[in-house]
Amino acid sequence: MPAGVDGPARGAAAMSPALELQGLHHRYDQHAVLHGIDLALAPGDFAALIGPNGSGKTTLLHCLAGLLRASAGRVLIGGHDLDRDPLAAKRALGFAVDPARLPPLLSGRECLRLFAGARGLDAIPEPTLALCATLSLQPMLDRRIGQYSLGTRQKLAIALGLLGEPPLLVLDEPLNGLDPLSAYALKRHLQELARERGVAVLLATHSLDVAERFITRAALLVDGRLRRQWDAGELDAIRADPARSLEQSMIDALAGE
Ligand SMILES: Nc1ncnc2c1ncn2[C@@H]1O[C@H](COP(=O)(O)OP(=O)(O)OP(=O)(O)O)[C@@H](O)[C@H]1O
Known about the structure:
Layout: H1 7-15, E1 19-28, E2 31-41, E3 46-50, H2 57-64, E4 72-77, E5 80-81, H3 86-91, E6 93-95, H4 108-118, H5 126-134, H6 150-162, E7 168-172, H7 180-197, E8 200-204, H8 208-211, E9 217-222, E10 225-230, H9 232-240, H10 246-254
Bound molecules: adenosine-5'-triphosphate.
Adenosine-5'-triphosphate binds near residues 51, 57 and 59.
Pfam family, one: ABC_tran
Keywords: ATP-binding, Nucleotide-binding, Transport
Protein name: ABC transporter, ATP-binding protein
């Protein structure tokens, strides 16, 4: 078990994969988008989901967060079946909502309080406030979300997703709109959660160059199928060789090599 992992929720999460997708399919009406995705994340994995535009990354994340119902297959979060036991599954999941969907009339602090309440907490947890400070979000917390810039909304969506430190974090393009300092702080924070707290992180991103240094796993989605995965050893080998990069490996995999 990773260092610093304790408590019953983490104990349960450490015994089963943090996330397990079994034969996941999704179709929008007649348009089949996901074709049998099998993927497992262990506690402490920091994984990037990469792939061309329209390959199905957001659809996959929405299926595993319960925002879309998969047409077939199973989603298990910390061993809990999302279909059969949605409350337990969703308790084990932190999902950063689309920043465009945040309620414009609430302040950031009100929104954090609301989400904290939904997680059974009576106040905004200290680590969340510390993260807001790290991301320079704190000075904006008492302003209405409707007045936030795109990057500030993105920061709030991330802080909401991470609230209560659930054992699985899922983020869709979290680096979009973040200034370089905030993007670096977020990557370090996620890396620390994975390494020291055993949190499993799955993030969809196009920013291969920035993700490459931090992740321990990568999975390439092409036309709704997982074409290639890289484990920690393969990523270390890529990082150790100045002539190689994850970007080039991805391009090779896309070319079918
Ligand atoms: N609500 C919807 N109704 C119908 N088709 C949809 C819907 N949402 C997405 N799609 C289609 O599903 C496919 C996958 O889209 P998705 O947004 O999951 O891809 P993505 O990999 O996240 O793309 P990007 O990298 O551009 O964000 C695309 O062909 C898209 O047009």
